[in-house]
Write the structure tokens for this entry.
Amino acid sequence: MEILYIDPFAGVSGDMFLGALVDLGVDFDDLREALRSLDVKGFDLRLTETKRHQIAATKIDVIVEDMPHPHRHLNDLLAIVEKAPLSDIVKELSCAALARLAVAEARAHDMPIDQVHLHEVGGLDCLVDIVGTILGVESLGVQRIYSAPVAVGSGTVRCSHGVMPVPAPGTLAILENFPVRRTQIPYEMTTPTGAALIATLADPIDGSVVLTPRNIGHGAGTRDSPEIANFLRLIHATADPRHLPGYEYDEEHDHDHEHGECCGGHGHCHDHEHDHEHEHDHEHSHEHEHGGCCGGHGHCHEHDDEHEHPHSH
């Protein structure tokens, strides 16, 4: 079966995800055109071929125009996604990732979800990173997505609420029940948007996985760090499903061939039992409480030097 293996050894952010997907072979022009269907103004994508520790990588930046942007709450972003001509699974997973951000921020700050609001340029870069990543993953047509433990860094980071420990409380809340790896590298390696994408799309897996790599993509982070090659590595691979966690193999009736398309051919499905409690329900409990695709109001951070965010990765 075809899988996507995420290797966040240097952490993950939305722009790193986009860069790795394009480096893996997702067509940049097609992706940019699909994102224009969101019918929101004031952004564009920029592609840069670069290197991190002499390893070729692709850098994608979401360029937000210097113009007034509304403060969009989660329901505003969900409405944008729902109105766009996207597949049902892209809408579902985009809403789920956005909701994870909102729920985590509400919990971290002990406030009602409808009082959490989006900062950085009205959440526009966050929206583009999430929808663009899920569009790119959909185009790969993989049947399952797995991720190694997520590197989070150490030290402190300055954000809109002041100086916070790394990982920031919102990021850590998003990654509850997902393996993380604290490193001695003294900065934020994983952003809330990157964490929400991995938690929404992937099942965790340890280093003993056996797979056959078919293609590899490197998505560069903003920081060119001397401590580590700062890129996200994605591996498009084939693997024996009998060796993968959370997969029930039936030789007479291959479960994936019947149900693989339930996730648009790009993600893991939820019609089988997992051995771990990972909350791969896309926050469905919050959907029922707050309405909409995933419900509620949110606050998401994406960190990019183009927007002069202090959390650039």
Q: What stands out?
A: The CA atoms of residues 119 and 227 lie 30 Å apart. Confidence is low (pLDDT under 50) at residues 253-311. Residues 88-108 form the longest helix (21 residues). The chain is about 30% helix and 20% strand.
